[in-house]
Amino acid sequence: MTLPQRVRLVEVGPRDGLQNEARPLSVEDKIRLVDDLADAGLSFIEVGSFVSPKWVPQMAGSADVFAGIQRKDGVTYSALTPNLRGFEDALAVGVKEVAVFAAASEAFSQRNINCSISESLDRFLPIMEAARLHGMPVRGYVSCVLGCPYEGHVAPKQVAAVARELFSMGCYEVSLGDTIGTGTPGATRALIDAVAAFIPRGKLAGHFHDTYGQALANIYASLLEGLHVFDSSVAGLGGCPYAKGATGNVATEDVLYLLNGLGIDTGVDLERLIRAGQRISDVLGRANGSRVATARLSG
Ligand code: HMG
Ligand code: MG
User: Fold this and answer.
1) CA 149 – CA 243 distance, rounded (Å)
2) Helix ranges, the chain (H)
3) I need a labelling partner for 295 at 20 to 30 A (CA). Which of 113, 160, 181, 195 fits?
4) pLDDT tens across 123-174, in order?
5) For the chain, which ranges sit under pLDDT 50?
6) What are the chain's domains?
């Protein structure tokens, strides 16, 4: 398989990253982060989520964040919505694209969204219907594609079944989430092979948390398998509130460095991205989770 000429980076730091940062962040700081990321050239930013504030308090201000960001032409600002209530709240603040999220493991589905996998898929149907009426694209996520914090091994065919449901209900792209970051390149390739029996590879995205330090290797393996969309978090922010011990997504700076080295275009400016990542790390009082940023800034 030849490598793609261009990759789309889906920046999930303001959502996946910040949803699990211990220190609460002001709405102003969140807005600044999103604007900085757009200024660095990212064309797809997941800004927040419209979920229960009792479940994920860090995302409580998402409506205010959407109201405050400067929406640039050519940039998609999306939101995570678990049910119709979340979709309607997102619509009310002018969100133009949403994502629904299911899991490949029953135990994770219960802990994350308090229902079974099939109940979660049923909940998405009215979202899909409402989104169609408003001409809004919907992205789909599958969690625990390479392992579950509660069930351990997850069979690729189980992932493929859930991904297929999301795709056939109208998700234009399905992002495969290694929620706990235990996947390795061989398992990643086998997973993509299994899912690609039902969904074209060009409609799949890779979403790798970096808990075991395998994310970049998994991205390279995914590139070889024909994927060209990857989710990442600036400065490696975050984790998952329902996956104990999971670290953040792979750092966007590190993915960009990998892709730059392969001559793959993303439209993102590494230096500006590093500045955005360091700024938010300073505000949060945490170490920068990007190896590339840490190396560049220590010079
Ligand atoms: P539930 O308790 O079963 O729902 O939660 P409910 O319908 O019984 O409602 C309970 C309360 O929540 C009610 O309020 C509702 O009004 C309220 P109360 O009467 O108790 O005051 N509620 C809402 N409030 C705001 N926005 C809403 C909403 N819906 C209900 N949309 C629910 C079910 C899905 C709401 C809950 O479990 C939830 O919000 N879960 C969110 C979990 C989450 O955000 N997880 C992190 C994102 S997923 C992830 O990180 C993985 C990913 O990155 C990929 C990967 O890495 O694998 C995507
Ligand atoms: Mg995630």
Assistant:
1) 6
2) 27-39, 62-68, 84-92, 106-113, 117-133, 156-168, 185-195, 215-224, 252-261, 270-284, 291-298
3) 181
4) 999 999 999 999 999 999 999 999 999 999 999 999 999 999 999 999 999 9
5) none
6) 8-298 (3.20.20.70)
Note the pLDDT of residue 246.
65
Ligand nearest the Cα atom of residue 241: 1
What residue's CA is closest to ligand 1, atom 17? Answer: 52
pTM of the model: 0.97
Is any atom of ligand 1 closer than 6 Å to the C-beta of 15? Answer: no
Q: Is the distance from the beta carbon of residue 111 to the nearest atom of ligand 1 less than 6 Å?
A: no
Torsion of Cα atoms, 243 then 247 then 252 then 256, to 10° = -110
Ligand 1 touching residue 32 (CB < 6 A)? no
Minimum-distance ligand 1 atom for the alpha carbon of 86: 31
Which residue has the CA at smallest separation from atom 12 of ligand 1? 52
Q: Whose CA is nearest to atom 10 of ligand 1?
A: 52
* Annotation says 240 is catalytic: yes
* Ligand 2 center–CA 212 separation, angstroms: 14
Give the separation between CA 169 and CA 162, rounded to whole angstroms: 11
pLDDT at res. 21: 85
Q: How far is CA 162 from the centre of its chain?
A: 17
56 Cβ below 6 A of ligand 1: yes
pLDDT value, residue 257: 98
